[in-house]
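LOG
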Amino acid sequence: MIARKTWREIRVMAFGYTLILELLLIPAILLWPTLRTEMDALARMMPIQSFRDMILAIGSEDESVGYSSYMAVQMFFKGTNIVGIAGAVLLGTALIARERENHTLEFLLARPVSRTRILLSKISVVTVALVVPIFLTSWTAIPLSWLIEENLPFAEVTLASFHASMFIVLFAALTCLCSVLANSQAHTAFMVGGVVIFQVAIYFIQEIRVASIFRVSDWEVYGPTLLGNESFYSLFFEQTLWLILGSIGLIGIALLKFRRATP
């Protein structure tokens, strides 16, 4: 019952989130033949070496390398990171904070259901609403690429989508925790937004960017993955697993706080 109610509350936003992911993807693919000729000039404008390497890879004479690198940026480094995090914040802020803000939390807690089940039901629905569109829209890039006579391998796209999904789930878990702690949706968004802004800021500073969480979800991860140079085991155990453990930890803290929460 709680899961169904949560889905009814977020389904319009979930469909909008899916549509935005797809609408960003289609023109990016169709414009590739034009954009690939401008990469050398763009690379000289990049302030960070890794960004210059990214642009040069996109402009590679090996067309398969160039297109895979380009789609790594468009689908995941840009698309999933931006739209996915925005979706996680948008869908996650209402989990508990809106109940508290609308003075309906005490009615929710009065249900003959444990607090653990309440929170897990809510976050599960949000997680599915965030993750499924990432896979679906990424898979559509494969037939769309055929329109410009390019190819993307299904296995590599799926692996990259899985890693990107876990990155977004981490932010959904963070938003869930903030929603439990905050008194309103605005406060929740402010808390999560502060973390995101700080992490983005240090990502763009060469000397300290290694400390940014975005280092596990940038071109240097997705480029080799789409090219088939990153195996499932190395990607999972070196990076994806830590995202999963981080999400579990944040949800665990949220559960502890929610058990003690007052309306």
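LOG (cont.) second protein
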Amino acid sequence: MKLPIYAYGQAVLRQQAEEIQPDYPELSRLIEDMWETMYHAEGVGLAAPQIGLSIRLFVVDTLQLQEKGKQVDQALKQVFINALILEETGELWTYEEGCLSIPDIRGDVDRQPEIRLRWMDEQFAEHESVFTGVTARVIQHEYDHIEGVLFVEHLKPIKKQMIRPKLENIRKGKVKVDYKMKFAKT
């Protein structure tokens, strides 16, 4: 089932998410719905806060970038539960990011190119791995969501000032997208 994506201005997007346990109600169905919602909106990642749930869950699929001919180290399709970034390393690199919760806004974000991450998969098996490049960046972006951080907070001050009116329009629901969105009550 395609779920509405919560737009900039929704309080859930600013909350630090809670860990979940294996008995989380209908977790398999939720994950299925998140994949469907993400693909419908043409995203490469989606975090639970973006569908209104303040839980430490996100999905990432960078295989589709590779299929579109983009160079992607470690392309993967993965569910991340209760993820924890253990380490971020390397020289900062700039890459343009966007977000399904903040449509029509893109901006250059500096991030480190390598992360060490510990997480659980959908069967609650624990994993630890190093990710690099674009895949690391997508994971960092989605991880920010479960920490209550939006990519626009990483933008340079002048860019933040320039997009302020667009952000206000998104908050008010004055944006057109090809997927369902839930806007903050004004």
